[in-house]
Amino acid sequence: MKTSLSLFVILCLVAITTMQVAAVGSDAKSESKLLRHVVMFGFKESSSEAEIQNVVDEFAKLPGKIDSIVEFEHGVNNSPEGLNDGLTHCFLVSFADEAGRAEYLPHPAHKAFVEVLKPHMEKVVVVDYWAQ
């Protein structure tokens, strides 16, 4: 089970990195590196689709509330491999530097989002890395 979760995390990171390289093309080396904050959720079976969508919508509002977020994207798992270990939603939050992440984590808007999330979260995985 831990192996499938680790594989899912690796595959998610590879996919995100591949998309980023494709988006910036040959200029990737001239761009400054971004600190990526990958968050993956699995929701409780008791949570309705509307409640889950509310969590997604509230997370998507954070870039408008927290200036240190320089990029944001999210999506729902659609891998046919079945290795997501119950994780269904992936969010990618990017910061210019560690100071930006340090502002984000205790930010009142982030804390308010966590309170919306808590009643519905079954599991979560967070991975931070510097984009290469």
From TrEMBL:
Gene3D superfamilies: 3.30.70.100. Residues 35-129 form the Stress-response A/B barrel domain. Residues 1-22 form the signal peptide. Keywords: Signal. InterPro entries: Dabb (IPR013097), Dimeric_a/b-barrel (IPR011008), HS1/DABB1-like (IPR044662). It comes from the Bacteria. Coiled coil: none annotated. It holds the Pfam family Dabb. Homodimer. PANTHER family: PTHR33178, STRESS-RESPONSE A_B BARREL DOMAIN-CONTAINING PROTEIN (PTHR33178:SF10). This is Dabb family protein. It comes from Aporhodopirellula aestuarii.
